[in-house]
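Run log, item B.
One chain of 159 residues. Sequence copied directly from the ordering sheet:
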Amino acid sequence: MSVVSATRLIGGVCRAALRPSVVGVVSARGYRGDAPEPNMIEIPLPPWVEKADEPIDIKRKRLLYESRKRGMLENCIILSLFAKKYLNTMTEAQLLQYDRLINEPSNDWDIYYWATETLPTPDVYKGEVMDLLQEFTKNRQQEQRLDAPNLEYLDQGRD
């Protein structure tokens, strides 16, 4: 057997080993009803509804909780630290923007990509809060952001 034949044979075996054994059988799951693939399963999510009569202190507590409990760790860290820094100083209009931003999109990756400016932010989510979040995400002070903050800071000033 020549060197060229042996190289082709070994190359073909290696490429075959890297191919998936089953092709076209696995169906993907999606969260959006307007999925581009016909095999994608639609999982309906309830629409976001503004809580108009919610007292502002309850809204802040709910948003703090929702900032910490995300579908992915990256957003948990970014949003919980952002909430720690800005939530208590936000106006009612800003709280509404933040509520809509973190609760209306059905995919946490969308929020992450908008915050990190990897993808353009849709017009409906543009505003003061998104500008603050995008600037916060740039981490110009180069803080170590490895985990969500402890909640001990909430007890300060309650004596």
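Observations after the first pass:
- The two ends are 86 Å apart (CA to CA).
- Residues 13-33 have pLDDT under 50 and may be disordered.
Flagged for discussion on Thursday.
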